[in-house]
Design a protein that fits this description.
Layout: E1 2-4, E2 9-10, E3 26-30, H1 32-46, E4 53-57, H2 67-79, H3 81-93, E5 102-103, H4 108-116, H5 121-129, E6 133-139, H6 147-154, E7 159-163
Parallel strand pairs: 1-3, 3-4, 4-6, 6-7
Antiparallel strand pairs: 2-5
Helix pairs in contact: 2-3, 2-4
């Protein structure tokens, strides 16, 4: 199993143990890491390397947000990166108390990538044709992404698990 971390995060995999399928043919991504996980599975499939399952945990879904929102996020990050990361992390755990997470150095290009990423149903159709099972997990109390738009999009591309009272980290209220 290969795990891709969320924006600015490292080693947060343990928060998702109850959802993750532990085997050699599963690729998992959380939030921004879901984008990276999808890209990795597409690359592996192109190279003929076996992948059975792609698990997307609270995938970063901002394609329905307005340009003003995206610009404000990037401006806030560039103005005071540490404060932005602190507030972002707090938002990931809302409405629960913030838990301990490990952070890594980030770049504004990574934030730009996740804010402007457009999920494509064609990518998922290709994976389905190759026999890759896609599982998506969303928290109904997620304060980071556009949950309802994500729910509408992802319900068409794989098996969607919607956890009504969970936050971005899929921690239940």
């Amino acid at each position: 199993m290969k795990f891709f971390s969320g924006f600015s995060l490292n080693n947060e995999q343990a928060y998702f143990n109850e959802y993750i399928k532990e085997d050699d043919y599963t690729v998992v991504g959380f939030s921004y890491g879901a984008i990276k996980a999808l890209e990795e599975v597409l690359r592996l499939e192109e190279e003929g390397i076996r992948v059975d399952t792609l698990q997307l945990l609270s995938p970063a879904f901002f394609q329905t947000k307005e340009e003003k929102f995206r610009r404000l996020q990037l401006l806030s990050y560039k103005k005071h990166e540490a404060l932005y990361i602190k507030q972002f992390t707090r938002g990931c755990f809302t409405p629960l108390s913030k838990l301990n997470v490990e952070h890594i150095e980030t770049k504004s290009e990574e934030l730009r990538e996740l804010l402007y990423y457009v999920w494509s149903e064609d990518d998922f159709s290709l994976l389905k044709e190759k026999g890759v099972k896609v599982e998506i997990y969303l928290g109904g109390e997620d304060k980071i992404i556009d949950v309802e738009a994500a729910r509408e999009f992802f319900r068409h591309v794989g098996t969607l698990t919607y956890i009504k009272k969970a936050n971005h980290f899929l921690q239940k209220n």
